[in-house]
Design brief:
By secondary structure, the chain is mainly alpha-helical. The relative contact order is 0.07.
Length: about 90
């Protein structure tokens, strides 16, 4: 079965998933989404911080890349992320 998340500030267990019914549950969901967004910003900022010149070259090459290739890269990235989430769930 799926693991149960334990909210750090509350003494009851809540099932994982999108079935949120009370305002506290909705707050919990937005808090988790905010943490995930913060992690995305941290990960996205690593390359420009460590290698600004290389990052600039990469962005310039992406500007010249065909839309179809960029869509394929985006689709593969989303698919990999969904698979990894499913695996660690």
């Amino acid at each position: 079965m799926y693991p149960i998340l334990l909210a750090p500030d509350e003494g009851f267990r809540r099932p994982t998933g999108l079935a949120y019914t009370t305002s506290g549950d909705i707050h919990f969901m937005w808090h988790e989404l905010a943490k995930a967004f913060c992690l995305v910003l941290i990960i996205e900022g690593i390359l420009p911080f460590l290698y600004p010149n290389r990052w600039r070259e990469l962005v310039a090459s992406l500007a010249q890349t065909d839309d179809r290739v960029l869509r394929l890269i985006g689709f593969i990235s989303m698919l990999a992320g969904a698979v990894f989430l499913w695996v660690i769930k």
